């Protein structure tokens, strides 16, 4: 059973309040050295059977049309997860 | 300026209603062949300067202590982003 990973991030020009909140909290909690934080989403799609090229193409289409909002988000990666 | 990527997923034994909702929506929208979906988070931490081993260690600690809830989530990856 293969697994496809889809990674989605807010577009650079979009304000990211969750990321801003984390970036503000880090130095207060002793984590310095991080200039900014952005928060996005990571999906794992469990595939019936092999992760063929067709499955990856379907996952890419689903990432663009269902998993992300193309107005405010970019799909940064669609790849097959390493077996674990 | 380097960027550290932190990936966090709900633990396998934790119910993931967002993932379940996506998994239910996909076949209705014509995407078949996906058995299940889980939704997690992906952070990009912008680093002041180089992504040294110390910076990565700090990012790992922040991932465990601030970015994730260790009761219900696993940190699945902390790595330096490829330059783009």
From TrEMBL, chains A, B:
A GO term, aspect molecular function: phosphoribosylformylglycinamidine synthase activity
Subcellular location: Cytoplasm
Enzyme Commission designation: 6.3.5.3
Functional pathway: Purine metabolism; IMP biosynthesis via de novo pathway; 5-amino-1-(5-phospho-D-ribosyl)imidazole from N(2)-formyl-N(1)-(5-phospho-D-ribosyl)glycinamide: step 1/2
Cross-referenced Pfam families: PurS
Signal peptide: none
Catalytic activity: N(2)-formyl-N(1)-(5-phospho-beta-D-ribosyl)glycinamide + L-glutamine + ATP + H2O = 2-formamido-N(1)-(5-O-phospho-beta-D-ribosyl)acetamidine + L-glutamate + ADP + phosphate + H(+)
InterPro entries membership: PurS (IPR003850), PurS-like_sf (IPR036604)
Keywords: ATP-binding, Cytoplasm, Ligase, Nucleotide-binding, Purine biosynthesis
Family according to the record: Belongs to the PurS family.
Functional description taken from the UniProt entry: Part of the phosphoribosylformylglycinamidine synthase complex involved in the purines biosynthetic pathway. Catalyzes the ATP-dependent conversion of formylglycinamide ribonucleotide (FGAR) and glutamine to yield formylglycinamidine ribonucleotide (FGAM) and glutamate. The FGAM synthase complex is composed of three subunits. PurQ produces an ammonia molecule by converting glutamine to glutamate. PurL transfers the ammonia molecule to FGAR to form FGAM in an ATP-dependent manner.
Subunit structure: Part of the FGAM synthase complex composed of 1 PurL, 1 PurQ and 2 PurS subunits.
PANTHER family: PHOSPHORIBOSYLFORMYLGLYCINAMIDINE SYNTHASE SUBUNIT PURS (PTHR34696:SF1)
Protein name: Phosphoribosylformylglycinamidine synthase subunit PurS
Species in which this protein is naturally found: Occultella gossypii
């Amino acid at each position: 059973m293969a697994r496809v990973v889809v990674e989605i991030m807010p577009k650079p020009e979009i304000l990211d309040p969750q990321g801003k909140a984390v970036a503000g909290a880090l130095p207060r909690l002793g984590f310095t050295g991080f200039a900014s934080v952005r928060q996005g989403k990571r999906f794992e799609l469990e595939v019936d059977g092999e992760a063929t090229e067709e499955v990856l193409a379907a996952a890419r289409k689903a990432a663009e049309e269902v998993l992300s909002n193309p107005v405010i988000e970019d799909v940064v990666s669609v790849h097959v997860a390493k077996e674990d």
